[in-house]
Amino acid sequence: MLSGEIAYTAIDLKPKRGPRLRRLANIEATSRACLLVDGYSEDWSALWGVRLDGRGRVVADPVEAARAISALVGKYRQYAERTPAGPVLAVDIARWSSWSAA
Predict the structure, then answer these.
(1) CA distance 79 to 73
(2) What is the structure's pLDDT at 34?
(3) CATH code at position 15
(4) Which residues does 60 contact at the CB level (< 8 Å), separation at least 6?
(5) CA-to-CA distance for 23 and 55, rounded, in angstroms?
(6) CA torsion sign, 63 to 18 to 93 to 99?
(7) Of residues 51 and 11, more confidently modeled
């Protein structure tokens, strides 16, 4: 979910390998993150992708985390049914890049 130049995501309730995911450790160790979004179609001429690079962080501020969770719940029906319980991740976007097969 985008809010200005910050992309947010949250660790949801799906089964994981444990509470400390590798992506959390990587972000905490490097403060770097990349978010990749692909648009798939059976018509390969319609494929596209967007990559966001920036400073990655596990959101520590409870007000910012609650605001992000609220926005995710408002945007995605699945989150409205099962609110994410895990940490919120943020990417303070420094660079956008994209591609399209068209």
Answers:
(1) 5
(2) 94
(3) 2.30.110.10
(4) none
(5) 13
(6) negative
(7) 51
Looking at residue 72, the DSSP 8-state letter turns out to be H
The residues facing 44 across adjacent strands are none
Which pTM value belongs to this model?
0.84
Look at the chain and report how many structural domains it folds into: 1
Selection from 70, 37, 40 nearest residue 52 by Cα = 37
Q: What per-residue confidence (pLDDT) applies to 14?
A: 64
Tokens of 5: 């130049």
Please give the radius of gyration of the chain, using alpha carbons only, rounded to the nearest integer. Answer: 15
Dihedral (CA of 65, 70, 75, 80) sign: positive
pLDDT tens digits, residue range 26-71? 999 999 999 999 999 999 999 999 999 999 999 999 999 999 999 9
Nearest of 27, 24, 23, 11 to residue 92 by alpha carbon: 27
